[in-house]
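Q: Is it fine to ask for two folds in a single conversation?
A: Yes, each is treated on its own. Send the first.
Q: Here.
A: Result:
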Amino acid sequence: MTPYPRKEHYTAEDLVEIIRILRDPDTGCPWDKVQTHASIRMNFLEEAYEAVDALDLDDPELLCEELGDVLMQTAFHAEMEEETGRFTWQDVCDGVCRKLIFRHPHIFGAQPGLEGINDWDALKNKEKGRTTLAGDLESVPKAMPALMRAAKLQKRAERRLGQTPPQPDAAAQAAAQAAAGGPDAEEAVGRLLFEAVRLARAAGVDPEQALQRRNEQFLRQAAGADAE
């Protein structure tokens, strides 16, 4: 048993200390102390999605709670890294502060050698040393939802190569091939969805959000059918 001081208000430092106690190999929580980055990877994604749900609901009490869960996940992973000696919670905070200062030269002043560069993506590529299209595209997280990732890939490619107009004919051809089934159906569906993302972006529509709203509409329609 490890008593922890009772306080009127706890801080981020308390959060880190509590996680350290939970991770103690001898006296820590049997579940918390054996977790790894891989074992709680999906927990991080789930907490982030729950925070976004709270945003969409415009529920401040729920949002406060869910942001706390996201912060806990961040601190948990940082503590695992501190245990290995690779970096600390302080390193995480230092890094994000430096990043914000670097990427807002219009607020904090340009860094030496970067005068005249005010675009967030250009500064990010400069910071990361990305000089090629392939390097820029490879940096898009693979764990992103597929529609969101397709939109991001297209946007980055267009920034370097110029805008690619929507191709309704290609989408229609892919739809017909997908409907026909067969061994190439999966590839055809992939092309159809990729072109649908391009069409959505050209219309100024977020494809991920559009599909989410369609999902909700489908749920309401299904609930209405049950009520009949």
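Q: Second one now.
A: Result:
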Amino acid sequence: MKFQKMFQFDGNFYTWTGKIFDLILVSIYWLIGSVPIITIGASFAAMYAAVTRSVREDRGSVTSRFWSAYRKNLLPSIPLTLIYGGVLFLLLLNIGILRAKTTGLFGLFFMVLYFAVLVLFVISACYAFPALSRFDMPYGWFVKLSFYMTFRHLPISLILLAMFAAAYFALLAKPAFFIVIPGIVSCVSSTMLEPLLDKHMPETGDST
């Protein structure tokens, strides 16, 4: 009886296969939305909104939720994308120059320093774009909030970093995983970030 119930339309089998399909779908949407590089921030915010509201909370279609959030966050995301993208590019450029042009402890010290700052900005971005999907605030406040949350919730920050690093290396090894890993990582990170974002909701913020 339990086995038969599992395969009913509202049973566990169809529920979980539907969620897996949604995660694949949202990963594909994220790839499409990220193609003009400058829109990658909007794509991250939209993916987070879609997996949180549609996949985890069963509130509407993942397609309509993603593209609605994408349109809403497209223009607000561009300054944040330029800030984070520009800083990461400069840090990687400096690390590359140091590796090519310097030797000894001097070069090693600055490479470690730039790498530490790079990691800090990567973790901060893990908070900034989910916050963008939730709140309406000036750009500077997103940056301030993301850095504050990075240090305030350091254990979770380190878990997020490890998870995104593992996803990065998995995608390097198997690019085909692009059709599922972005959605899975966003869904898992949502379970950790949503309670924190609720705690740090600004008084004038507009939760979506």
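Q: Anything structural to flag on that second result?
A: Two points. The chain has eight helices and no strands. Residues 171 and 178 are 7 Å apart (CA to CA).
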